[in-house]
Amino acid sequence: MSEALTLPAEMRERAGKGASRALRREGRVPAVIYGGKEEPTQIHIEAKELRRQLGTGHFMNSIVMVEVGGKPVRTLPKDVAFHPVTDLPLHVDFFRLSKDAKIEVLIPVVFVNEEASPGLKKGGVLNVVRHDLDLICESDKIPDEIHIDVTGLEVGDSIHISSVTLPAGAVSAITDRDFTIATIVAPSALKSQDGEAAAEAESSAEDSEDTAEDEAGEEEAASE
C-alpha cells in the first residue's frame, strides 16, 4: 500500500490570479481541498516541499495528509497544473477522503519472474500493451504497483486483466471487456510488423509520386 505523505499548508486569505501570482513569488503554490460534502478549502503549500514529494514518483497515487492549521485532512491529489515552459507546479487539487471512500487511480504494472518464462528464454519479447491499470481502490488500500508474474508463459501467450490477482480492496475500473495487458511475441513477429509498416509507407510515397507525375502530365497537355 502507498505510504501516506504529510504536507504542511496554510489557509489562503485571498483568491484570484493576482493573489496566486503573489504566492508563487514567495515560493508558495496555491491549492484547494474539495469533496467530502464540505465546502472547498483554499490553501497554499511550500513549492520546494511539493516538488520533493512530486519527485518520489508516487505522489498522485498516495494518501496525502494535508495539515491545515495543525489539523490533518486526509486527501488524494487529483490534479497538478504545471508551467508550460519551466514545468514548475502552479496549482494543486486535493480530493478530501472519508475513511471508507473508494477512488479511481492509475497504478503502474511491474512484470516479475521473466527468467521463468520459457517464451522469453527462447528469445521472445514482452510486448507491454498497458503500463498502468485503471483501478477502483479503497482509499486506505491503494497499492504502489501491481506485480504480474510471467512464469511459464510461452511465445504467443497473452496476459488479460481476468488473469491478474488484484490486491484486496481493488477492482478494475474497466468492466466491459477482458482487456490485454501484455503479450509475448517472437522477435520475427515484431520485425514483420515493422517491415509491413515500412512497406506501407513506401507504397504510399510511391502512390503520391505517381499522382504528382500524372497531374503534371495533365497540366502539360492542357497548356499545349
Brief digest:
The chain is of the alpha+beta class. The chain has helices spanning 17-25, 47-54, 118-121, 187-223, and strands at residues 5-11, 28-35, 38-46, 64-68, 71-82, 89-96, 102-112, 125-128, 132-138, 146-149, 158-160, 170-172, 180-185.
Task: Output the keywords.
224 residues, Ribosomal Protein L25, Chain P, RNA Polymerase Alpha Subunit, Chain A, domain 2, 2 domains, 4-stranded mixed sheet, 39% strand, elongated, disordered C terminus
Distance between the termini: 79 Å
CATH class of the largest domain: Mainly Beta
Low-confidence stretches: 218-224
Sheet with the most strands: spatial strand order = 1-3-2-6-5-4
Biggest pleated sheet: 6 strands, mixed, barrel
Description:
- The protein is of the alpha+beta class and 224 residues long.
- It folds into two domains: 5-98, Ribosomal Protein L25, Chain P (Beta Barrel); 103-185, RNA Polymerase Alpha Subunit, Chain A, domain 2.
- The chain is built from four helices and 13 strands.
- It has helices at residues 17-25, 47-54, 118-121, 187-223, and strands at 5-11, 28-35, 38-46, 64-68, 71-82, 89-96, 102-112, 125-128, 132-138, 146-149, 158-160, 170-172, 180-185.
- The strands form three sheets. It has a six-stranded mixed barrel with strand order 1-3-2-6-5-4.
